[in-house]
Amino acid sequence: QVQLVESGGGLVQAGDSLRLSCTASGRTYVMAWFRQAPGKERDLVAAISQSDTNIFYAEPVKGRFTISRDNAKNSAILQMRSLKPEDTAVYYCAARGSAGVGYPWYRVPSYDYWGQGTQVTVSS
User: Fold this and answer.
1) Above 90 in pLDDT, residue 52?
2) Are 33 and 46 in contact (CB under 8 A)?
3) What percent of the chain has pLDDT over 90?
4) How far apart are CA 88 and CA 14, in angstroms?
């Protein structure tokens, strides 16, 4: 069982930046960041393949967020810039424990492991 540990959330003002980190206790394949605001569904923010060759960003964060990973450290980073109040949510790191096709990145059930979540609050 792989464990994911997130860090880096906090309270910032609109326009500020934050860096979220996720460290896995074992090998992972696709790694992703989801977010969930109160009363809303958990949505994919960004995802990255194991080899870095495929990266996805949700439309609301394109051009502002950057996802990267370091396989040597079993970690994934979400660099968030130009934060907006609508980015306020609990951010979750997720990872797949195996390779394969047929697992859409935007679907919560596609991921085997989840972090505990870290709160990001952006004030206006």
Assistant:
1) no
2) yes
3) 93
4) 10
